[in-house]
Design goal:
Layout: E1 2-3, E2 9-11, H1 25-29, E3 36-38, H2 46-54, E4 58-60, H3 75-78, H4 82-92, H5 95-99, H6 105-121
Parallel strand pairs: 3-4
Antiparallel strand pairs: 1-2
C-alpha cells in the first residue's frame, strides 16, 4: 500500500500470503511524483533504491544488518514512516479488512477501496 503524508491510502496491490511485499514495491511507486519514499528495513534492496532515484526522490530506508556497507538515511524524515502503520491500523478497524472473510481477491480488493474512501471522508 502507498499512502500520502497525511496517512491516507492512495494505492493498493494484493499479493499472495507467502509472497514478500518487496516484490511489488516498484509497481506501487510507478507513476508517482514525490520528494521522498519512506519504508522499513524489509524494503532495503538496490533495485528499489534505483527506482526511487530514477523518480528523483530520496530513499529513506534504513539498511539491513546484512549489508556490508551501510547506507545512511534521514532519521528525522524516517520518524514519519509511522503514518503508513497508522493507516493500516485505521483500515483494521473494519473487521472485514482485518479478518479477510472474502474468498476472492476481487471482492477483498473492492472492500479495501470502499474502506479507503471512508478514511478519506473522515
Amino acid at each position: 500500500m502507498v499512502c500520502d503524508t497525511l496517512g491516507r491510502p492512495l494505492r493498493f496491490l494484493l499479493t499472495a500470503g507467502q509472497r514478500h511485499d518487496n516484490t511489488t514495491a516498484k509497481a506501487l511507486l510507478d507513476g508517482f511524483e514525490c520528494q521522498a519514499v519512506l519504508a522499513d528495513k524489509a524494503y532495503d534492496n538496490n533495485d528499489l533504491r534505483q527506482a526511487i532515484a530514477d523518480m528523483d526522490a530520496e530513499a529513506v530506508i534504513p539498511s539491513t544488518r546484512s549489508r556490508k556497507v551501510q547506507i545512511p538515511h534521514n532519521e528525522v524524515a524516517y520518524k514519519d514512516r509511522n503514518r503508513i502503520e497508522r493507516c493500516f491500523n485505521k483500515l483494521k478497524h473494519f473487521r472485514r479488512f482485518a479478518t479477510r472473510y472474502d474468498r476472492r481477491a476481487v471482492h477483498y480488493l473492492a472492500f479495501i477501496h470502499l474502506a479507503a474512501i471512508m478514511l478519506w471522508l473522515r
